[in-house]
Amino acid sequence: MKTPFKLHNVIKRYGEREVLHIDQLSIPAGKIYTILGPNGSGKSTLLRIMALLLVNDEGELEVLGEKVTWEKRQLLRLRRQMSMVTQTSFMFQGSVYYNVAYGMRVRKTSSRKIRSRVGELLEMVGMAAYRDADARTLSGGERQKVALARALAVNPRVLFLDEPTSNIDVASAAEIEKYIRHINQEQQTTIIMVTHNLFQARRLADEVFFIHEGRIIEKGPGELIFTQPRDERTAAFLRGETVF
Ligand SMILES: Nc1ncnc2c1ncn2[C@@H]1O[C@H](COP(=O)(O)OP(=O)(O)OP(=O)(O)O)[C@@H](O)[C@H]1O
Ligand SMILES: [Mg+2]
């Protein structure tokens, strides 16, 4: 499988301030990655650039084997192979069914296929009973489950998760973790997840990135970072101290 992401000297600034600076990053396919770091350290910015939702100011980016030119047709082609779930997911006006079916309809999937896939996904996330409910009346946690089903409906090669479970109860979060692992194992979907839940990061991650002031200051196998962080800033963060 192609390496989903290669970044080289990628820089993002807002005004004078550099908020992201990635010298070199290569993300092999098929694993679960978690990104940890304090508020404002650049985690969402990094995700949004990799998902091609935000343009970097400098550097080169390779996504799913293609050098990114930001040309319209390329963007469409690449974005269609990736999905993102954020902390508070936006629901389209319409039913839960309509929301989950949306991406497949855009891709002109047959209605028979759409019906069976939506049914299967709603079953998986425990939302089958809400099939015809108005998506905008769902609770926060219910929305997150539907958002996950919607993201998976298009069989993405890459799934980005930006704090997908920070609004939801422990039992539902555990279920969502289960689906994430399942999808990674069954479909070899590359999963890149930002979380502030260290336990969750530790449970799920094959590999952990620790980001501080826009730079990845430590990366490695999940267990190792948690038990033997090399950088003092990572260690302090894991102890729950403010990192300067
Ligand atoms: N559109 C914008 N204009 C100006 N500054 C921005 C913009 N978007 C993000 N920033 C700044 O860039 C920095 C990185 O933001 P980012 O959202 O990537 O942080 P984060 O690591 O995801 O934080 P959190 O854990 O709070 O979600 C922050 O200091 C933020 O204020
Ligand atoms: Mg963020």
Strand proportion, as a percent range, falls in: 25-35%
> Please, what is the average pLDDT?
93
CATH architecture: 3-Layer(aba) Sandwich
List of distinct ligands in this structure:
adenosine-5'-triphosphate, magnesium ion
Tally of strands: 10
What's a concise summary of this model?
The protein has about 240 residues and is α/β, with parallel strands linked by helices. The chain is built from 9 helices and 10 strands. The structure holds adenosine-5'-triphosphate and magnesium ion.
Ordered list of secondary-structure elements with their pairings:
Layout lengths: L4 E10 L2 E11 L4 E5 L6 H8 L7 E6 L2 E2 L4 H8 L2 E4 L10 H11 L4 H14 L15 H14 L4 E5 L7 H18 L2 E5 L3 H7 L2 E6 L2 E7 H6 L4 H7 L6
Parallel strand pairs: 3-8, 3-9, 6-7, 7-8
Antiparallel strand pairs: 1-2, 1-4, 4-5, 9-10
This protein binds adenosine-5'-triphosphate and magnesium ion.
What does this protein structure show overall?
The chain is an alpha/beta fold and 244 residues long. It has one domain (5-93, 157-238): 3-Layer(aba) Sandwich (Rossmann fold). It has nine helices and ten strands. The chain has a six-stranded mixed sheet with strand order 6-7-8-3-9-10, sandwiched between helices. A four-stranded antiparallel sheet has the order 2-1-4-5, covered by helices on one side. Strand 4 (58-63) and strand 5 form a beta hairpin. Helix 3 packs across helix 4 and helix 4 (111-124) packs across helix 5 (140-153). Residues 14, 19, 37, 39-45 line the site of adenosine-5'-triphosphate.
